[in-house]
Target: Cullin-4B
Amino acid sequence: MPLSNANQRNLPEQQSQENDLTSSKKRRLSDNCSSQNNKRFRENSEISPMTDSQKRANFSALTNPSNGINRHASPLANSKPGSTKKLIIKNFKEKPRLPDNFQALTWDKLAESVQAIHTSRSINSSLEELYQAVENMCSHKMSAALYDQLKQICENHVKSNITQFLEDNIGYEQFLKKMDNIWQSHCRQMIMIRSIFLFLDRTYVLQTSSVMSIWDMGLDLFRSNIVGHHIVQNRTVEGLLQLISRERSGEAVDRQLMKSLLRMLSDLQIYHDSFEKKFLEATDRLYAAEGQRLMQERDVPEYLAYVDKRLGEENERLLHYLDPSTKKNLVCCVEKQLLDQHLNTILQKGLNQLLSENRIQDLTLMYQLFSRVKDGLKELSIAFAAYIKTTGRLIVVNTDNDLEKDRDMVQKLLDFKEKLDNVIDICFAKNEKFINGLKESFEHFINQRQNKPAELIAKYVDSKLRSGNKEATEEELERLLDKIMVLFRFIHGKDVFEAFYKKDLAKRLLVGKSASVDAEKSMLSKLKQECGAAFTSKLEGMFKDMELSKDFMLTFKQQMQHIDTPGGIDLTVNILTMGYWPTYMPMEVHLPAEMVKYQEIFKKFYLGKHSGKKLQWQSTLGHCVLKACFPGGKKELQVSLFQTLCLLLFNEGDVFTFKEIKLATAIEDGELRRTLQSLACGKARVISKEPKSKDVEDDDKFIFNDGFKHKLCRIKINQIQMKETPEENTSTTERVFQDRQYQVDAAIVRIMKTRKALSHNLLISELYKQLKFPVKPTDLKKRIESLIDRDYMERDKEDANQYHYVA
Model:
């Protein structure tokens, strides 16, 4: 509303400091008129009579009916300079009376100002005068009437605005703009009116609990007479919903207009009842339909991006124009219709694909969205575990006995585990629920195939700890061993792992093929930490044997310095404790006389130091370095003992048949065929074979290759006998099973000795708790029968399912 600058400066604007200042400046004679106490100056003052005109001059503000505003007069204004006058004020003979028309004249002036504010006209009186008029009326107990008159004039003005909102030919957007203009004008008007009637607001209103403040009165009038009208309210709410619907469809709308009108509904305290309920219902319908449609039309990554976009848009609306109290209900509505209703469909349709393709961004978004709804992460973790079990089982189970698949199994498991760890770290915020689900799932699928995963993990470790592996540094090898130990924790058949690991460790130690002693001991330390000292005691014994053998050979070589060695041979012996090392089948072969003599010398020396012990030579584990003279030059051949025996024959002739070699060496048939195959069909063919074929037959001839050439001086010929044969594999597995039988027997006796009597089902249950490896119920039943036959326990005579311990 246009006001003069002077009026604007005098506007209180609801500021208490300005109000107090105005009040203190204007209070003068009006308070004195109502005083009940006589006030005098000092007693030595002379008394001068006062004329009636002088009295009236002092109270001219009350006798002048013009505007009800006090004007101050000075009783000394007409005194002459230099004259001395003493003023004595006597008591009033009667209380001064207000003019009869004081209230009417004052209200007329105030009403005129209020109407000027309503019609945006200039106010004739200053705001200071208007404020003083209100104060005077309140001081003379006219507050209630003044409040009622003010309320009535404001109500009349508000009612006059209703007709413009009942027209049918106005569009909803124009309707909203008109509503906003009327609301903004009403607020400005009420601020101005309240500043004039501030004294009334701070005295009468504060002291009377039954009346509303002037501002609240203005809100109540607007609410009850305009927005409270059912047609106006419905058109306002529907218009707002139309704008929101258009914005959700991608159109640009006037957010400032919406913010102002929604703030109006909130200020009028009808936001929740009139708008929010309908808004949430419309939101629910919209996203329910969109969710159903888009879930069918789009793939999961696109759908998740759409949901995230919609949630962001709704948050923008909350930020720009919706009331903050709507946030919880609005977000819950969107999450329910777009996420909660489609959790299973999203997981079934897209999770496996996202995990298989390692879609990090999409998985991160899925986790973030699922974390917003109840049980979302629970369902996601269940589906995640199911994917791990399904995919892992495909890696482990080998129904076709594909050797290539088994060879790659451990590396695939490591890669699979690393990928899932990365997903959990980056996408799933290292959530413990997913970490535990991964562990349980790996343990489940890796033991779907008994024994084989344990065996293959042991062989994989062997391939990495042997010299010549592809690991670049010790740090990389150490990290790889840590990853392998994670897989090791999942397998139940740890005794199978131990058996194959021990066999491969023996080969690495005896043939000197270990890549690093530090790496070997590091792996041993990890196994000990994981399974305990009992698990690694034999493995540690193997290392101890190698160290003792090294020390003993130093002593032996010092002794041999005083003795001529047979044939100029240098002999190194490893003394192995049978209880620590794998079991090897002894093979008696024909050794050269020099070797036999050297063995006897060593045996005599050893038994002289360790009386009562027995030595058994293991020819299958021996290896040699041969010096060979070819026309092309001298070479050193690193070969096995069996290869050595075959090659030494060619010092006595150039051609030998298979049967002749077998008779001369006494090497077992299968071992001999593999040995000759390595010498005649490998990369370094120091002998040739007729006919030329890969398989060795009984009638084949073997000829010294005098044309052999090689760029290296020291040549290593693969030691075929060190490779694992199917028979060796079966033998290792059988030994594990035999050890398990002993453990099962011991566990049964332990349980029965403690319990004395036990039913079959309870005994089986106790055994499953104590045994650390998988075992079938039929195998347990066989061990129970064996113990009954050996009188460790007996059946109850009346109940065959009841067992008794036999002391």
User: Anything to note?
Assistant: The longest helix spans residues 726-755. DSSP finds 34 helices and nine strands in the chain. Confidence is low (pLDDT under 50) at residues 1-80. The longest strand covers residues 623-630.
